[in-house]
From TrEMBL:
One of its GO terms (molecular function) is oxidoreductase activity. GO terms for biological process: respiratory electron transport chain; tricarboxylic acid cycle. This is Succinate dehydrogenase/fumarate reductase iron-sulfur subunit. Belongs to the succinate dehydrogenase/fumarate reductase iron-sulfur protein family. Pathway: Carbohydrate metabolism; tricarboxylic acid cycle. The keyword Metal-binding applies. SUPFAM superfamilies: 2Fe-2S ferredoxin-like (SSF54292), alpha-helical ferredoxin (SSF46548). PROSITE patterns: 2FE2S_FER_1, 2FE2S_FER_2. It holds the Pfam family Fer2_3.
Length: 264
C-alpha cells in the first residue's frame, strides 16, 4: 500500500520530512513523506517513520511527556524536544528537517553522545551538609526554597548546553566550560542557605569563575530561549552568579585576604 493510500482520516495529511541519517563516519539528509494526524507531535511522526519506512532509524526517547529529557533534537535548526513540538506549528506544505543535536558527537542518526554533560556534572562539588544538623531537621525560609525550586525543574535535556555558542561550534572550549546547565547548578548551590561549602573552604563563586568557565558566558540568553521548562537560566542563575563573583573579586577584604595568603 502506498503512503498516500494509508492516509485514511480526513484530517490526516502527508508531511515532508527530511531526517539526518548517519554515524560518526558521516551521513546526510534523507527525504520521507509521512502521515500526520490531528494532535500529533514530531515524535509521533518519527515513530511512524520507523514503523513504516525506516525501521533502523535510531532515536532516543522515553516519556513522551516532556519530562525525561531524552528526545532532544534540532527541528528546522532550532533545538527542541520532539515530544513537545506539535505538528500544528508547521505549515502543511513546509519541509520539516530533523537533525541531531549539533554540539555533541553523533552515535547514530538522531542519537548523540551526551557524556560531555555527565563529565561536567561530576566536576561540580555536591551539596555539603551543615554540621550538627541531621537530615530532616534542615529548615529554610520559603523564599530560599522558591529560588532554587526553579532550577530543580531541569529535566537534563541538554538543549541549553547544545545551544550555547561557547561550545556549539567550539569543541576546544569544552574542557574549560561547564555550560549553562551546570553553571546554573553551581548558582543554585551557592544560593543554598544550608550549603556548608564555604565553611569547608570551598568558594563556589571562585570555582565557577576559575574552573567552570563562568567568564566565557556573555549572557546572550540563547540557553534560556530553548529551555523547555522555561527556566530563566541567564537572568536568575548566571547573571546573579556573575554579580556575586564580581563582588567577591572587588571586595577589599577578599582582596586583602588573598594578598596576605599569597605572601604567606
Ligand atoms: S547566556 Fe551564557 S551560557 Fe547561556 S547561551 Fe549565552 S553564553 Fe551560553
Ligand atoms: S536547564 Fe532547561 S534546557 Fe537546560 S538541561 Fe535543564 S531543562 Fe534542559
Ligand atoms: S520523550 Fe521524554 S522528554 Fe521527550
Amino acid at each position: 500500500m502506498s503512503a498516500q493510500q494509508e492516509v485514511k482520516q480526513s484530517a490526516a495529511y502527508l508531511a515532508q520530512f527530511r531526517v539526518w541519517r548517519g554515524d560518526p563516519d558521516g551521513g546526510g539528509l534523507e527525504d520521507f513523506k509521512v502521515e500526520v494526524n490531528e494532535g500529533e507531535v514530531v515524535l509521533d511522526i518519527i515513530h511512524r517513520l520507523q514503523a513504516t519506512q525506516a525501521p533502523d532509524l535510531a532515536v532516543r526517547w522515553n516519556c513522551k511527556a516532556g519530562k525525561c529529557g531524552s528526545c532532544s533534537a534540532e527541528i528546522n535548526g532550532r533545538p527542541r524536544l520532539m515530544c513537545m513540538t506539535r505538528m500544528s506549528v508547521f505549515g502543511r506544505d513546509e519541509t520539516i528537517t530533523i537533525t541531531p543535536m549539533r554540539a555533541f558527537p553523533v552515535v547514530r542518526d538522531l542519537v548523540t553522545d551526551v557524556s560531555f554533560n555527565y563529565t561536567k556534572a561530576r566536576e561540580v562539588p555536591s551539596f555539603v551538609p551543615p554540621a550538627g544538623v541531621a537530615p530532616g531537621e534542615y529548615r529554610m525560609r520559603q523564599e530560599d526554597v522558591n529560588r532554587s525550586q526553579e532550577f530543580r525543574k531541569c529535566i537534563e535535556c541538554f538543549l541549553c548546553q547544545n545551544t550555547c555558542h561557547v561550545v556549539r561550534d567550539h569543541e576546544e572550549n569544552k574542557g574549560a566550560f561547564a555550560g549553562p546547565r551546570f553553571l546554573m547548578r553551581i548558582a543554585e548551590l551557592d544560593m543554598h542557605p544550608l550549603d556548608a561549602a564555604p565553611a569547608s573552604g570551598l568558594d563556589r563563586k571562585a570555582t565557577a569563575q576559575d574552573e567552570h568557565g563562568l567568564g566565557y558566558c556573555n549572557i546572550t540568553k540563547c540557553c534560556t530561549e530553548v529551555c523547555p521548562e522555561n527556566i530563566k537560566i541567564t537572568d536568575n542563575a548566571l547573571i546573579p552568579l556573575k554579580e556575586r563573583a564580581a563582588d567577591r573579586k572587588y571586595d577589599p577584604l577578599v582582596w586583602l585576604g588573598n594578598k596576605i595568603r599569597r605572601r604567606e
